[in-house]
Design a protein that fits this description.
Blueprint lengths: L1 H69 L8 H11 L3 H14 L9 H7 L10 E2 L5 E2 L23
Antiparallel strand pairs: 1-2
């Protein structure tokens, strides 16, 4: 009777060991698949980033080439001179309005107007960017300009232009 008891329980133990081995093998296979999927995902992310870099490089080269074809004089400028040129010619209220106009005509999303503080940081020598003053009610008021001009030279008079 004791031998039958031992055989009965030893079969159950062997079955448990086989099931445990199968479960461990399945877990290891699942972990291997997870690792494969993670590596595949990393490869896809790297590929996407590379494509985005290529598209950005192409866009930058094409736009800069277009700018140089319209203003060939800018080719000889240093980086600092070119930046100053862009800040004075484009990064101002007039440039922002023109960009918004182009975006509206093309059906694109229009950009929100830049706060004066940001415009001042971008172009600290600008005389058109004046700090916004808050009224007693807390609502900001538009700065007062000396003269109203659409060419971005408001408040300037010939050779007596303000310098900061």
């Amino acid at each position: 009777m004791q031998a039958a008891f031992v055989r009965k329980y030893s079969k159950k133990g062997a079955m448990k060991n086989v099931k445990q081995k199968n479960d461990r093998r399945k877990i290891e296979e699942a972990r291997a698949k997870i690792t494969q999927y993670e590596n595949h995902m990393k490869q896809l992310v790297q590929k996407q980033k590379a494509e985005e870099r290529k598209a950005r490089t192409k866009r930058l080269c094409s736009r800069h080439g277009l700018l140089e074809s319209m203003f060939p004089e800018t080719i000889v400028l240093t980086d600092e001179q070119f930046k100053a040129f862009l800040e004075k010619a484009v990064v101002n209220d007039y440039g922002r309005r023109m960009l918004d106009s182009v975006m509206a005509k093309s059906g694109g999303v229009t950009t929100a107007p830049k706060p004066v503080e940001v415009a001042k940081r971008v172009n600290p020598t600008s005389t058109t960017a004046k700090p916004i003053k808050a009224t007693q009610g807390g609502a900001p008021t538009a700065p007062q300009t000396e003269s109203s001009g659409t060419d971005g030279n408001a408040g300037k008079s010939g050779s007596a232009a303000q310098t900061s």
